[in-house]
Sequence to fold (373 residues):
Amino acid sequence: MNKPAEIIRREIAERGVLSFARFMELALYCPNSGYYETKKDNPGRRGDFYTSVSAGELFGQLLAFQFAAWLEELLWSRATRHSSLRLVEAGAHDGTLAKDILTWLQGARPKRFGHIEYYIIEPSLCRQEWQKETLKHFGPRVRWFSDLENLSRVTRHSSFCGILFSNELLDAMPVHRFGWDAENKKWFEWGVAVEGEKFVWARLSVQSAMRHLPTAVSHLPSSLLDVLPDGYTIENCPAAENWWRAAANTLERGRLLTIDYGLTNDELFSPGRTRGTLRAYFRHHATNDLLANIGRQDLTAHVNFSAIQSAGEACGLKTESFLTQAQFLTRILDKASKTGEFGEWSGKPARQFQMLSHPEHLGHAFRVLIQSR
Ligand SMILES: C[S@@+](CC[C@H](N)C(=O)[O-])C[C@H]1O[C@@H](n2cnc3c(N)ncnc32)[C@H](O)[C@@H]1O
Fold:
């Protein structure tokens, strides 16, 4: 048995049925042995799934173009004239996106590049090492923080102005999973237990379901609950909402942006989506066998963008836009092509753009939420 499976088994023996969120946390992030601690080559062709970053450097270049324009705006606004400008990335994995962004800024905005600090929020020492290796040419321009609290502590006296962003971070955070019990007209939370050698699904106590149930679902009208199919499945990710709140509170002036696959409340809670959105990915195949292959397959669920948007607004952020990745990148490309900075538009960049923006690839399922203060 591998290490994360061993630890999960031990926790179940000590505490009883584990929430799926805890199971997912251990399977993905167990120090030194969880999925994201050992699979450096993921995402990518040799891994289990593709992300926009693994599609090539164009994604980072387009983001860098947009970030440079936003930083310029910030610099010209009176309140930030004396502060350093910061780009903060979370969920940087092996540092490839940071490298693509910094390389473009260094080449295309050499004057501004000197004033930009690039911070990475990375709780894992192992992933910090991968990132340091990828970014070694940028020296002290890049700094690491284990979490947002740590970043706030350091930047408290110098006011945090800049852009805090992530690509596919929130969809990798641990989710709670719920089912509808039509006979008893109650939600219950799915947990994980052990049966012999195998991990199996088991129901958690009713109190636990009420504690973590998504707000949107706890207020559903009884007429709808009367016809909701037995076993209807949904997820909730308090970790993502908490993270977004902490990020919003860190930002004194600038933008908070996330790119993820996800849906709004209405899209998530629909008659066609009876099995929820949780999936496992292994060698580019999606499976529903979430309890198998522990620590060797990715586990992920769609982001609830309504919940994230509300969390940011409750912290005083203004929602600027909520777009598909295709809309977002096409707008950037329109502006960028007027400057001529992206040169000939054919061959490799055109193929990468097609992958990033085509609805059947990454263009439609991925959404971009931008909030600002
Ligand atoms: C799906 S991968 C995306 C990697 C990369 N951003 C990309 O697009 O290719 C999710 C990444 O988020 C990281 N992650 C998860 N929770 C995190 C947290 N609280 N803070 C920082 N990174 C986190 C994971 O370790 C993993 O590297």
